[in-house]
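pls read this stuff:
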Amino acid sequence: MGLTVKTTGRGIGREDKILLRSRPEDKVIALAGNPNVGKSTIFNSLTGMKQHTGNWPGKTVSNAQGYCRSEKRGYLLVDLPGTYSLMADSPEEELARDFICFGGADAVLLVCDATCLERNMNLLLQTIETGRPTLLCVNLMDEAESKGIHIDLEKLRESLEIPVVGTVARDRKSRGKILSELDKAFEFPQKRRADYLEYPRQLEQSIKALLPLAGEIEGLSPRFICLRLLLGDEMSGHVGTELAQAAKEQRELLAEGGAGPERLQDMVVSSLVNAGEKICKQAVENSDKGYSRRDRAIDRIVTSRFLGYPMMVALLALVFYLTIKGANYPSQWLSSGLFYIYDQLLRLFQELGAPPWLTGVVVEGAYKTLAWVVSVMLPPMAIFFPLFTLLEDSGYLPRIAYNLDRPFCRCSSCGRQALTMAMGFGCNAAGVVGCRIINSPRERLLAIITNSLVPCNGRFPTIIALISMFLIGGDNVLLSALALTGLIILSVALTLISTKLLAISLLKGESSAFVLELPPYRRPELGKVIVRSVLDRTLFVLGRAAAVAAPAGAVLWLLANMSIGSESMLALLSRLLEPLGKLLGMDGAILLAFVLGFPANEIVLPVAMMIYSAGGSLTELGDLTALRPALEAEGWTAVTALCVMLFSLCHWPCSTTLLTIKKETGSLKWTAVSALLPTAIGVLLCLGVSALGGLII
């Protein structure tokens, strides 16, 4: 995709300046870099709490902005999505490129990884070539030192002719060094030819032929403009007709000489790689200490064809074991506290003389449902998300994507879908949003549609309770975790099968290539892991669930207390669904509970118990030993429990997830497909189990 009026970030830059630029002399700084180089840590260090997060206009990719000041001036920092090149092939990379080129950035703060500087040179050299004042921040200097890598910052400064600063992002001293060098970036000559970039003679001749027609556009170097035009970027609205026509003629001449579009791109990339290697040979010394060898040794195990998959399953079982084991007592304590408040609210409404219907809707309906959702969701999420974040920060999650790349490629998708699928275990809505990391629109859509085939945190409590009551037959946490792991493996298999079926039918196409970085193994910072996982993930997901749970509770109470004749609406609806429920190996009450659990999956089992007991509000479940006889009295068997678990595993996504899918895809069609696909799979599984169970019993 070329740089066009529609894809450029000019509007973005202007809106950001109006939003946060406090003085006319403030400078807008584009904070850029490859993924996993500590860019966000530096951003947080520089801006502190003076930050703003939002979405790019017309885009679903989020951005972060912040303000900081040096001794000389103020800076508005715009944290761009991670990118490997200005030759973008994903929405995130397009936005990073467009903001640097046309977003109103006065300079670029480019963060590189000291442990693999050569890989970062591609983006750095392209950024310098734009003509924007650039500061190179060589981050993770402490990790480079531990690996025996020595970087001569002075030689880098001399070779690149830009300010260079070495940092350890977590070190507060780095903040002052960065601001000081950022001031110097505006003192370096801005108009210069990057002599260390030598392109093949054919390309250089074409650039020289265009230079007399090219002027500086929005601070971009004329040489960079000519190069981008030759590579096929139309830059509509930014260059004159004469220059655009001349560039088209030069492209035709190059093609006649054997340098078509792909060959031209290869020329540029080769030149960048060669220049980067030359600079790094002069400035980087690598003694190759044991640390990097240790990384490679670990990778030979965790990415092994024979050991990689068993390790993933074992870690998954361990995470579930810790989640189940650790969530039991906090959930009971939280439930006791919230239902104590429920008793006090009930007494307060009675003392105030509130009408029974108001007490029912607010206390029996909205609050009681909300209390159930919070007490059931919060403890496991508060354990699961930090564990997930620990795996992420340690560097293991990219290895999972690497391991699963082959099976996903066979399904015409890519390994990045494994990461979004893993996010779905916490919350399917979060997993859908995470699909933004997938470059290909087709593969992104495949990941979005199939994400709800893995159970979210809201479905775990029902599945775990039924496993403990009917399949394991006791309070054996280890066996429960293993059984749950088996169901998760089934959900992954269903995801792969569904992805393949979609890829050969509704979404035909070949799997695309993608860059997957295997970052070094790092010791996670426990404090930041807990804060980020609790604040950014747990409370965020819980807040969205609570927002729909309270209104749903009010509706539930009304249905339970509104009657047609002598039969409540809940009982009537349950009776109407009874034939279909029996066909699926369940009954009308549990099927209705799934329908009414659309706003929040956590309330499915309590709603079923409310229907069974003909009560006017959600039933307190108590412990599992008391719940099993109550369910067996309603005709439940092991087959019923298995069908309920399978339907809980595969049915329509919750309301929050469907709204997120509609927002991400902008399509009612794909939102409907996302709801119908897992439901159809769940129906088929239940029909099969019900039929097989009938033959056995």
Observations:
- The domain at 10-185 is CATH 3.40.50.300 (Rossmann fold).
- The chain has 28 helices and eleven strands.
- The longest helix spans residues 308-351.
- The longest strand covers residues 62-69.
